[in-house]
Amino acid sequence: MSANVISGKNEWFYSDAVKEHFFHPKNIFKTEDEKKRYKADGVGIVGSPACGDVMELMIKVRNDKIADCKWSTFGCASAIASTSMLSLMVTEKGGMKLDDALKIKPNDIMKRLGGLPERKVHCSVLGDKALRAAINDYFRKSEQYERIAVDSGKIVDKILKITDKDIEQAVLEGAKTFEDVQKKTKVGIQDKSCIPEVKRLIEQFKEKYCEY
Ligand code: FES
Question: What pTM did the predictor assign?
Fold first, then answer.
């Protein structure tokens, strides 16, 4: 089976690593009761705007490292496989430092998985976002407010008030070119001065989510 399935074509192959993590997910909560009894230091719950699925991820922190990570989701096979892989990545070798865990990108997870079908890339973002939310929750609970990583949007289209987050979302939903993004968001139709910045952002988000 081909490992790299992010090719720009509508392929639906799943790598052996994806199948392994889907059929045997690591660090998943097996019951609601197990989840209730888990003494988490940080909890992250996020939903995917692209598909409406939900991810809940919890961490235990020791010495500023992730000592344990457990999760559950109503997401699809790709969300299960990528969060399973993510939970391994952050707990292997004695646990990842929180600052390093905050830097994990969906592409890092996909690299370890051998790729995901193009239309499933947004599923790998769920675990990644839930992890960041859980770490921020830990920072809040431990009163390390200065370490909270804020994901605020920056306005690029000044007339329609479209932010870089809107561009990011359009790319996550499969837009590849400026024309695709404009069709979804209407960016640059009135405020033409933002077009070069939007094109730069599209390349940046494609690099983050769609190519490796
Ligand atoms: S997580 Fe919703 S489609 Fe994959």
Answer: 0.76
